[in-house]
Every structure is written in structure tokens, then in C-alpha cells.
Write a structure and sequence with these properties.
This protein has about 475 residues and is an alpha+beta fold. It has 13 helices and 23 strands. Bound molecules: flavin mononucleotide (FMN) and manganese (II) ion.
């Protein structure tokens, strides 16, 4: 297989697997977005767009890249033959075995093939799709990596935050409160200093996957990407900022975030987000980057990973559920057989399902309580469901069947108020939106057979899969 540590090698690998479709002449205004959404819904191939309608050639966009396990597996060192809960389990084990792979410092690299100097910077030269019809502007950064260095700790961070074009040399970078890039910005701002920043808009697949993952603050995402791809990420020093930039990236912007006051921050949004809704236009929340240098490869390829209405997603499965699975076990919940989410971004999201093999009275409620409060389950959570391990938790129909038939409502339902919420929570009443953060309530649903009289619970009236397979192959229906 091709070397997939940069976007071009990865594209070659996708082509070898017949997982790539090339398109020419598509309109940047909504057509790229609609094709990306349909492609994701169909779990179709990755889409590589070239020569946009009415736009000079030479700049390309790729989207619908990580939609299937078959394509994402090779990018994170997981067998492309795994899918569903088996993939998630392999991912959990890989995550637990993490060892940093230090970056390889290099001089030069393909990223330096072309440059725009400060007075030449013109972001409108890049074809930027309007990803969703009500987006407030062109989002240059969706599948991007925002590189910063924390002024206090010196730690390098790369995170995916949405990036909207504000002017020919300005973009807004929507780092939400608490995110690592935001913490660095706040510290620089407190000191009255600009924060140096670089943004990669197309890069090796592992670098993107690491950037969008909720990793602990002490993890360097470049080193994590090295672990995923099995080789160090080559980085060169950016001339303007001194920050490490991937030497084999496609496009990199360099510049700074001035220590802008909230009231000076521009309008940003609306934008179609991962719960499946547009978030409103916001003012006074989003730092602005002044772009001072642009580097790009010949015929550069921007990675588009717009959030989409579920069940379509930029990811194949709820990878964040693996982290919650690990956290449940670390908290001492025995016999957790799987964790899943149906409305997910990087976190398992507002509909999380846990499968356990029940061992004692109260076991299922304990799993619910921990899941609602653990780091990976709290942010953006809402409904938490626990089911027995005969339920296929990746199948919504099976989960609904379990809730509908096994939940003893009076004992099995609880509401917990005032838990950490995501800024993307659509059902938050306007008066509860506070600049100091949001909270929302959790519904805990125990859909396990009630433990105390489990032996008397009616038996399921279905044959086993193995028996049906055997009889089916005998009679060939
Ligand atoms: C396409 C995409 C867009 C995202 N947009 C944002 C965003 O605008 N703001 C944000 O805070 N997080 C956003 N995220 C989630 C962050 O990437 C994620 O929380 C990541 O862990 C942040 O890195 P950090 O933990 O180093 O701060 C986005 C993720 C993806 C994949
Ligand atoms: Mn981080």
C-alpha cells in the first residue's frame, strides 16, 4: 500500500481500494456541500474535487474521506476489515497502549513549494465551498488543524476548530471555551500579547484525526498522529511564528491572534453543526487570525470535513465512545461489553448506549451514573441508556426494542439536572445561555432486564443467529 503519511499518498491508497471518486466542474456554492452530504449518507467513496465551476484551476478539495471504517482504518493503524463495535474495541485497545512518537524536525519540504508573502495574502484565491445553505460565510477550515503553543506551559497543540474567511487576510477561529487552543489564546490575551498561530488546511490523515480528538492536555497531537500512522510526523519551523508545521501539508496559514477584547470580535456563523442544526450567528466570541504568510504545495488539496446531520457524519463510527468505555472500566464498572453513540462528533454525544453483562443489583444504574459524569460522557451528553449484552448497541432498532420492552419506567428512569453541556446543544432555552457556560439535564434509562427478577423475565422469541444461518443455508431462502 502507498505511504499514507500525507494526503497524496493516502489518496493513492484510496484509489487502489477503489474508494475515490474524482469530479470536475462542480460549483463551490452548495454543490460541493450537497454532494458531500449525499456521499456521506450513502457511505459512498471519498470525493476529490478539481477545477470548480467558474474558478481558476489548480486548487483542489477532498471530502467524505473518513466516512467508512475501511478508509479510516489504514489512517489510524487499524485493520480495514473491522467495523462497528469490533473497530471501536480495537481502537480502545490502541488508545490505551499509546506511546508518543516524537516529531521529526526537518528543513524545507513540499509545503514550501509556493508562498504568499504578507502583502500578497489573498484567501479568496482558495476555493472555499459553502458547505451548508445557511452558513454565514465560506468556511475555509473544517478538516483543518490549528497549531498553537501555550504561553505558560510551552506545550504545542493542534486542534480542529472551524475557520471562516472574514477578509482577504483575516479568518475567525472558533475555539470554544476550555479547548486547548482557546486556553493558549486567553493566556496570551491576559498578558496583552498576540498569540502566534498556524493553520493547516490539508494534511496527512492521522494529523487530522488526532487534531479532532478530545485528547488530554498533556498529549501532543503531532506525537499522537505519529503513533497512529506508525512513523514520526515531519515538521518544519514556520518562518513567521516558529511553530512546527507539517512539512508535507497541503496548505498552511501563518500569523497571529491579536489580543482582541470580546467586544471587538466579529460576527461568526451560522454554521451547520454535528447535532444536525445550524448554530446561530455569534458576536464577541470568536478570535481573529491575521494571516501573514501562506504556504502551499503545487495543486494543493484542502480537506473538507463539514459536520453533517446525523446519521451522516465525517467519521465512520462514534470513536469517542471508546474513551467513555475506558473511563467506565477505570471507574470500576465491571463487564462493560460496549459503548456506542448515535448523534456524535468527537464525543459519544447526546444519545449514548452502554451494554453490560449484569452481575449484581444496581450494576446497571451504577454504569448510568458514571457515564453521565465521566469526562467523555458529560460534555454534550443527554440520554444515557444501559442495555443487556444481547442487544446490538450499534443498531438503533435493537436499542429501541430494549427500551420499549425491558425498561421498568418507575425504577428505570432518572433525571439529573445541571450537567456540563455542549455549546451546540440545540434545546437550551435562550435565557439559560450564559457567557459563563451552559448546563443541561440528563435522562438515565435503565433498559436492562430488572436484575432482581431477571430469571423470570420472559424469554426472547427469536432463534439464535447461528441456528438461522444453518437452516437458511440448508434451504437457501
Ligand atoms: C469538522 C470539525 C469542526 C470542529 N469545530 C470546532 C469548533 O469550531 N470549535 C471547537 O471548539 N471545537 C471544534 N471541533 C472539535 C474539536 O476539534 C475537538 O474538541 C478537539 O478535541 C479540540 O482539540 P483540543 O482538545 O486540543 O482543544 C471540531 C471538530 C471537527 C471534526
Ligand atoms: Mn489538545
Amino acid at each position: 500500500m502507498a505511504d499514507i503519511t500525507d494526503m497524496r499518498g493516502y489518496i493513492e491508497a484510496l484509489e487502489e481500494m477503489s474508494e475515490l471518486r474524482r469530479l470536475e466542474g462542480v460549483d463551490l456554492n452548495l454543490e460541493v456541500g450537497a454532494l458531500t452530504e449525499r456521499g456521506a449518507e450513502k457511505e459512498g467513496p471519498a470525493l476529490l474535487f478539481n477545477k470548480f465551476n467558474g474558478f481558476p484551476g489548480g486548487f483542489r478539495v477532498i471530502s467524505n474521506v473518513f466516512r467508512t471504517c475501511k478508509r479510516t482504518g489504514p489512517a489510524m493503524g487499524i485493520s480495514p476489515d473491522l467495523s462497528g463495535i469490533d473497530y471501536l474495541y480495537a481502537w480502545r485497545k490502541k488508545l490505551a497502549a499509546y506511546k508518543p512518537v516524537p516529531v521529526q524536525q526537518v528543513e524545507g519540504g513540499p509545503i514550501f513549494e509556493n508562498q504568499m508573502a504578507e502583502h500578497e495574502v489573498d484567501l479568496y484565491k482558495f476555493p472555499t465551498p459553502k458547505w451548508h445553505d445557511l452558513d454565514g460565510g465560506p468556511y475555509l477550515g473544517t478538516g483543518c488543524g490549528v497549531i498553537t503553543k501555550d504561553p505558560d506551559t510551552g506545550k504545542i497543540n493542534i486542534g480542529t476548530y472551524r475557520v471562516m474567511v472574514q477578509d482577504k487576510n483575516k479568518v475567525s477561529v472558533k475555539m470554544n471555551m476550555g479547548k486547548h487552543g482557546r486556553l493558549a489564546f486567553e493566556r496570551a490575551r491576559d498578558a496583552g500579547k498576540p498569540l502566534p498561530i498556524a493553520i493547516t488546511l490539508g494534511q496527512g490523515p492521522a494529523v487530522f484525526l488526532a487534531a479532532q480528538m478530545p485528547l488530554p492536555p498533556d498529549v501532543n497531537e503531532f506525537e499522537f498522529a505519529g503513533y497512529l500512522q506508525g512513523s514520526p510526523v515531519p515538521v518544519a519551523r514556520g518562518a513567521v511564528t516558529g511553530l512546527p508545521i507539517p512539512a508535507n501539508a497541503e496548505i498552511v496559514l501563518e500569523g497571529e491572534l491579536p489580543p482582541m477584547k470580546d467586544e471587538e470580535m466579529p460576527k461568526e456563523g451560522p454554521f451547520g453543526e454535528w447535532p444536525g442544526y445550524f448554530t446561530e450567528e455569534n458576536v464577541g466570541e470568536t478570535p481573529v487570525m491575521v494571516v501573514k504568510r501562506v504556504y502551499y504545495r503545487n495543486d494543493p488539496i484542502m480537506l473538507g470535513a463539514p459536520p453533517l446531520k446525523p446519521p451522516a457524519s465525517y467519521l465512520p463510527i462514534p470513536l469517542g465512545a471508546a474513551t467513555l468505555w475506558e473511563q467506565l472500566e477505570k471507574a470500576g464498572i465491571p463487564e462493560v461489553k460496549g459503548v456506542w453513540g448515535f448523534v456524535y462528533g468527537g464525543q459519544p454525544g447526546p444519545f449514548t448506549v452502554i451494554a453490560i453483562k449484569q452481575r449484581y443489583a444496581g450494576h446497571s444504574k451504577q454504569a448510568l451514573l458514571v457515564a453521565a459524569g465521566a469526562r467523555a460522557g458529560a460534555y454534550g451528553g443527554k440520554f444515557v441508556v444501559v442495555v443487556d449484552d444481547d442487544i446490538d448497541i450499534a443498531n438503533p432498532a435493537d436499542v429501541i426494542w430494549a427500551i420499549a420492552t425491558r425498561c421498568h419506567v418507575r425504577e428505570g428512569l432518572d433525571v439529573v439536572k445541571g450537567v456540563w453541556a455542549s455549546v451546540c446543544e440545540p434545546a437550551l432555552p435562550p435565557e439559560e445561555r450564559s457567557p459563563r457556560g451552559y448546563t443541561s439535564d440528563r435522562v438515565l434509562i435503565d433498559a436492562c432486564r430488572p436484575y432482581k427478577w431477571m430469571d423470570q423475565f420472559p424469554a426472547v422469541n427469536a432463534f439464535t443467529k447461528e441456528f438461522k444461518d444453518k437452516i437458511e443455508s440448508k434451504w437457501k431462502i
